[in-house]
Amino acid sequence: MTSDERHLLTQRIESDPESVQRDLFKLVLTLVELVRQLMEAQAIRRVDEGDLTDDQVESLGVALMHLEDAMEELKQRFDLTAEDLNIDLGPLGPLLRSDP
């Protein structure tokens, strides 16, 4: 790689440590939010099918509420919004579903 190519590469890569940390955290939170949404959808399906006892429904609901609260706190801490976490997959649309 020539020095000109290296220079162009370093211009494209954000090397500010704070920015790198925020972007990494944004990616991690995006994955956690995706898993949270999948778990919520699965929980709703199981409740609708009657697969869970009342205690299990209550426990699952509380756990999902705590996870959502933790996500909100982390998004605020890193000054992120739900839109920041929603990666555009081009023709497939957004990664995350939007809450009504």
UniProtKB/TrEMBL annotation:
Subcellular compartments: Gas vesicle
GO BP annotation list: gas vesicle organization
Gene Ontology CC annotations of this record: gas vesicle
Domain of life: Bacteria
Keyword list, A-Z: Coiled coil, Gas vesicle
Homology family: Belongs to the gas vesicle GvpK family.
Protein name: Gas vesicle protein K
Predominant cellular place of this UniProt entry's protein: other
Coiled coil, from the record: 57-84
Organismal lineage: Bacteria, Bacillati, Actinomycetota, Actinomycetes, Propionibacteriales
